[in-house]
Amino acid sequence: MLGPSWLDPQQMLHSLGPWALLVTLIIVFAECGLLIGFFLPGDSLLFTVGLLVAQSFIDTNIALVCALISIAAIAGNITGYWIGRKAGPAIFKRPDSRFFRQEYVERTRTFFENFGARSIILARFLPIVRTFITVMAGAAGMTFRSYLVFSTIGGILWATGLTLLGYYLGGYAFVADHIEIIVIAIVALSFVPIYFELRRHRSAQPPS
């Protein structure tokens, strides 16, 4: 695991027992909407949840699990948006601290400016950026209706997609034993559409 042992999704969820799903929903909400949540293991957590549902450790129907996680992600996105609308400028002017870095803001700002509304969907698969993009959208004055549409699409794709991957692929021994590698591969693949979007965006710009 590329981080502290307490952030290992398998270790964390097994230690939580019957509270595993509830804590997962809280973590997803925090990562999607609260700036304190960007360091949480969102991608690997969802994949592990799917795996544990397949193993019956989490004794809840997979469709219900996907629905609940999607709702938590969307609710977090909405919360982050309104934080940005109300206090975005003040938040983004904060000095660097142990967890907050201005480079995170600049990285997200560039991403948002390059892709516009589509960034709300694309950012779902990018750690750190997916946390700050919600606040950025609110601070930039993106209309809530438009934000809600893209946020809902992105939240469902991310939450349901990664959870189902864990559910259907977790039964394979290689996958179960190499979750971190699989998740890193998934994140790497998520850069493919972003790469082509960036190329299209640049080619559409007139030469200077």
Helix run count: 10
Q: Supply Rg.
A: 17 Å
Helix content: over 70%
Describe the main β-sheet briefly. none
Indicate the mean pLDDT: 77
DSSP strand content: under 5%
The rough form would be described as: elongated
Query: Got a strand count?
Result: 0
Name the poorly predicted regions: none
The span between the termini is: 45 Å
Which structural category fits the helices and strands? Answer: mainly alpha
Task: Give a short summary of the structure.
By secondary structure, this protein is mainly alpha-helical. It has 10 helices and no strands.
Describe the structure.
- With 208 residues, this protein is mostly helical.
- It has one domain (5-203).
- The protein has helices at residues 9-16, 20-33, 42-54, 62-92, 102-115, 119-122, 129-139, 144-169, 173-177, 179-204.
- α3 (42-54) crosses α10 (179-204).
- The longest helix has 31 residues, at 62-92.
- The mean pLDDT is 77.
